[in-house]
Amino acid sequence: MTTGSFDILIRGAKVVDGTGNPWFYGDVAIEGEHVQEIAPPGQIPVEAAREVVDAQGLVLSPGFIDILSHSHIPLMLDARDLSKVTQGVTTEIMGEAWTPAPVGGQISDSMKDLSVRERSLLGDWVRRAQGWARLRDWLEAMVERGVSPNIGSFLGGGTLREYAMGMRRGTPTAAEMQTMQRVMAEAMEDGAFGVSYALIYPPDTYTSTEELIEVSRVVKRYGGLYITHLRSEGSQLLEAIDEALTIGREADLPVEIYHLKASGIENWPKMAQAIARIEAARAAGQDVTADMYPYSGSGTGLSSVLPPWLAEGDEFYKRLTDAPTRAKVRAEVLEPSGDWEALAHGLGPERVMPVGFERPENLQYTGKRLSEIAQMRNQHWIDAVFDLLISEQHRIFTIYFGIDEANVALGLRQPWVTVSTDAGGVDPAWAKDQGPTHPRAYGTYPRVLGKYVREEKVLTLEDAVRKMSGAVAARLGLQKRGLLRPGYYADLVLFDAATVADRATFEDVHQLSTGIRDVWVNGQRVVQGGQHTGATPGKIVNRASS
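That's the D-aminoacylase sequence above. Prediction below.
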């Protein structure tokens, strides 16, 4: 029994500690930023606490850690990270393919690919970003301003390549490779968790396996991860997994596969084969894991239905106005060669739903399938893609309905699969004006707890929490986070297991989840009674932080 005083006593909770062990009833004392004590109910005197929280009937767990966050830009717009912290997210790990730092080399404007509206909303952040010569400069600027969640990042592999080579295809020269190795080492020294590539997007897609191995060897020296959006999640899924495994073996470092899936109806049977291939690698001693989001639709740019060579030299939109180029692209999209991920080919335009329109004349197409849009415009769907991209001058965020629900459950059951969002945090109050987005931005973690734990019993409560906290912290090498233990940071979520649920849908997306009552980050409450408190106690996290 404690004899001292402390800030907060959370009483009578069903404690799920993030290890996967069975829940137990307990009282939890918080002092400052840390959990001070965990004891059976009634063993910690109420008088010792400056605040008492009645948690009877509720679950208390570690805060959720999102290994695939896209909150880079949203956190500049809104420090609260509202749609994420109200899901129970206390730590955001960013960096898939792109980071707003470092700026230098061939990168003079790290925000150049943002739309006109996004640049306008960011205001002075666009100017400030041009001074971020190191990865840490960006993260430090965020925390100095204040953010609700903890933040950390991988170095974006696309950013790394563009720094050395611009948007040029081909093999790096010896000098360019030396630049990449130097910048990679600097990022690791700044606390990066490793390097992150998204191998279906330019310039990442221009990167050879050999180049990925060379960069990963630098990451290995610092104990980091190679984390990747595979080169294919469809027709070449198994070959793409083999490539990731080869990189891990040759560079001798752990591998994490982003949002594991088999996309496209004809590829759905490959999910079981992909799992078997990863299981075989693990059985042979290779350290490889994956993460997933619990939805049947994925989300990326409409530009991704077109071959990546169009983006070489930053002339993507210019090339789309050239008639011979359009004819060449049309042929490649309708009969893809197999050396790039032709997203629409395996789905058809009826399973592609663009939502990220900004120009007033295009808003009428928001939320309609590409087949409908083509009909409205009296065009072939490929021509509609060309003209809409030219009109918007940005990638146009799009939902692709290509994932089998049964495969989502199959993937979640794997002990080496964790949960991620592949999304940034938003507030419905301002996000509605920007049009629809993917519901994973609002509902990923409550959806797991509601649909896949309570309703369908795909996972136990304890294993679901482990996949959202302790297992992710262990994968990243985070110290004193991810578990509910004395001495650990008080990143905590208090929720009602009987009611927690996602509300956001593809048809009506801008809805916060329900059932998450309170959230603490570093001992400060950022959500109370389901409402954001305005607190911004987030810290930078990395493999060495404690």
